[in-house]
Design goal:
about 20% strand; 3-stranded mixed β-sheet; CBS-domain
Length: about 250
């Protein structure tokens, strides 16, 4: 049976006295949503989230990471994947730190990698309507791509349904911007979301079984799935929501 050690990955590491602008640069230009923060002894102090550091103006060079640190979920290398999944569900994080007994950080386990494994072991229960979020943050197709980073900062989400004349035409994520090389820079001011969005949008409906929606998330390697009813986007379901439909016996 696989453990946390089997899915161990390198993740961004910062020290608590690093400048917040450094964290902002790392997380804005990397695929990771979170960076782990180490204290003065090199032990885990917590984590910092992209939605926090994007609020730090590039000119505020004296602000340190320490003021943004949150409590980080952590496991030992021999922890079960069910334990990892339970912590991801509890904290709604994209990663869990893997830590030795002496506090040394070995790396992290990513939600995107543990999620499909848990689905092979546990069948999600219920309907999408029972778990979806009804607070949907959207972006317009003709908005500039800088609006996406603004929405990451405002909402904490990293992927958004794209509407054109009130109809769903695609999805755009921070990952799409990074893959296109257009995540930053003044040259992007006139570039529209439509130029980088993913089409067509993969969708589900409120009446769909969660296990079917979860299979779509895995098959297309996406973090969030718009829920549509007719032409309207009525909700969003993501990996964390699906984990709520799984009974995880933890160690």
């Amino acid at each position: 049976m696989k453990t946390a050690a089997d899915l161990l990955r390198e993740v961004p590491l910062l020290s608590s006295d690093d400048r917040a602008t450094r964290a902002r640069s790392i997380l804005r230009d990397d695929q990771f949503r979170e960076a782990l923060v180490l204290d003065g002894r090199g032990a885990l102090a917590g984590y910092i989230d992209i939605s926090d550091v994007l609020r730090v103006d590039a000119t505020r060079s004296n602000v340190t990471v320490d003021g943004f640190v949150r409590e980080a979920p952590s496991v030992s290398p021999d922890a079960s994947l069910e334990r990892v999944g339970a912590l991801l569900r509890q904290y709604r994080n994209d990663s869990v730190a893997v830590v030795e007994k002496d506090g040394r950080v070995l790396g992290g386990v990513l939600l995107s990698e543990v999620f499909p494994i848990l689905l092979t072991r546990h069948v999600p229960r219920g309907l999408v309507s029972e778990l979806m979020s009804r607070r949907v943050v959207t972006v317009e197709a003709d908005n500039p791509v800088s609006r996406v980073l603004g929405l990451v900062q405002e909402s904490g989400y990293t992927a958004f349904p794209v509407l054109k004349r009130r109809s769903l035409v695609g999805m755009v994520s921070r990952r799409d911007l990074l893959a296109s090389g257009r995540a930053r820079g003044q040259a992007d001011a006139k570039l529209s979301v439509e130029a980088v969005m993913a089409t067509p949008a993969i969708t589900t409906t409120p009446e769909t079984a969660v296990r079917v929606a979860a299979a779509l998330i895995c098959r297309h390697d996406i973090s969030r799935l718009p829920v549509v009813q007719g032409d309207a986007v009525v909700g969003i379901i993501d990996r964390h929501d699906v984990l709520r439909a799984i009974a995880l016996a933890t160690d």
